[in-house]
Amino acid sequence: MTLKGWTVFSLVRAMTLVFVMGMVAAVFSAAEATERRSLVLNATDSYRPFTDVTINGVETSALLDTGATIPLIGDRFLEFEPAAETSLTTEDSEARILGIGGQKFYPVSRLPKLSAGEESWTDLRVAVNTENRYPIQKSVLPISIFETRVVDFDFGNRRVHLYDGKPKRVRRARHASVPYQDVNSLLIVPIRINGVSGRALIDTGADISFLNPAFASQSRATLDEERTALLRGSDMTNNRASIYRFRRIVIAENEITRITLPVFDTELFAELGFGDEPMMILGMDLLQHFRLQVDREQRRVHFNRSVNPRRYTAERDATSVANGITVR
What we know:
By secondary structure, the chain is an alpha+beta fold. The chain is built from five helices and 21 strands. The strands form three sheets. Strands 12, 13, 14, 15, 16, 17, 18 and 19 form an eight-stranded mixed beta sheet that branches. Strands 2, 3, 4, 5, 6, 7 and 8 form a seven-stranded mixed beta sheet that branches. A six-stranded antiparallel beta sheet has the order 1-10-9-20-21-11. Mean pLDDT is 80; it is low at 1-21, 23-35, 80-91 and 318-328.
């Protein structure tokens, strides 16, 4: 009886131990899988999130851009394996690249192989930057290329996490989220400036945030005449630009007060389809202060900010301008 009881107990304990070990292994496997799907952000002089990629066997870096809808690469990466003839239509054979300075069209081709971290793609449709200078010299990856529910920009830890399930809870951070409007895979969120409602494009491809004249006018912002004079004295000859002071910007319950931002009189906003509506480009000068989680299943953007954030200042050289964004 004692022997039998001991045997049963030992089997139960052994089975329990195996079960627990299996659960632990599963947890570690999931954690390792999550870690493997995290992209490391490079340390650069720019605010923008660059990560290491391999294009047709060539190691380089690329911008992870929420303001892009198609990958953009330099034509030098196709020298080793020229693009094959395709049956693309005229509409599909070109990609439109928009920026403050205007728009350009670049040819579309098929890229044999691209990888970033543990993510990889073959026979990928890409826009080919034949000039390697406009709007940026580096390659660009839109976040729509990643087939996960959440793209989690952890700027503080220089990581971008890719995973399914709900956005991860961020400890010791204030959390707020807003729904986003999907416009050709671009993320448009509501925003309020000086009490006036408008919309903002979340653009990790832009160093600097900026507004259109309609938003500056309706929000009754104050023109900074001295800094505007400096700006117009620089090389900004293609687009009329001014510097304005704003009392209060509210992004997903986060307030930024007494901020100066450039205002550009450019066709960019009309090309995006918003005409003279109050609109803003949210660049990395503001986005870097948040852990930004894009939940594509729920179509919400989560803004997480440290409970004790460092003091934010928007002061910058008057000649600082935003980089172009890329859309199809």
